[in-house]
Amino acid sequence: MGMSVIISAATADDAEQILKLQYLGYQPEAELYGDWAIEPLTETLEQLRAELAERHVLVARLGDEVVGTVRGHVDAEGIGRIGRLVVHPRMQRHGLGGRLLAALERSLAEGGRPVTAYRLSTGHRSLGNLRLYARQGYRQTGVEQVSSRLSLVHFEKPVAAPLAATA
């Protein structure tokens, strides 16, 4: 019988595994866009540790191994900003990305600051990401041309209003 993947808050001890997974997971993106200087591949361990202290960072663990991660925060306008979703290549296409997104949405909503919507973006050629976000209820809100090789597709998912209590 196999082990289950458990999603939990990242700790400082996870920083090195997160950085290695991020590097592995974003190499195909860098190749797709012909840009090896993208932030996920240039982030330092010190930068990641600072983000761990300031933001919501979740990891998916299979035993002791970090096989997925996602980060986010709620900005001053109440927008849950989501980024750096990455799943180990051998664990992709099993629903883990969707589970990580949903868990981060819950974490941000329970974080104390009201959330009105969630926003994220991905490159225009990242077809798997585009499909995942649409399946998770995100709707495209715009496209921003960053360079001749990259356009970012922006997505938003409104927070469902809580059901009113009936008397």
What is this entry, summarized?
By secondary structure, the chain is of the alpha+beta class. The chain has helices at 15-33, 39-42, 45-54, 96-109, 127-135, and strands spanning 5-9, 56-62, 65-74, 79-87, 117-123, 139-145, 151-158.
What does this entry look like structurally?
By secondary structure, this protein is of the alpha+beta class. The chain has a single domain, classed as Aminopeptidase. It contains 5 helices and 7 strands. The chain has a 7-stranded mixed β-sheet, with helices on both faces.
Number of strands: 7
Overall spatial form:
globular
H-E string? EHHHEEEHEHEE
User: What portion of residues is helical?
Assistant: 25-40%
> Based on helices, strands and strand pairing, what is the structural class?
alpha+beta
Number of discrete helical segments: 5
**Percent in strands:** 25-35%
**CA distance, first residue to last residue:** 49 Å
CATH fold name, please? Answer: Aminopeptidase
- CATH class equals Alpha Beta
Mean pLDDT: 91
Largest sheet: 7 strands, mixed
Topology at a glance:
Blueprint: E1 5-9, H1 15-33, H2 39-42, H3 45-54, E2 56-62, E3 65-74, E4 79-87, H4 96-109, E5 117-123, H5 127-135, E6 139-145, E7 151-158
Parallel strand pairs: 4-5
Antiparallel strand pairs: 1-2, 2-3, 3-4, 5-7, 6-7
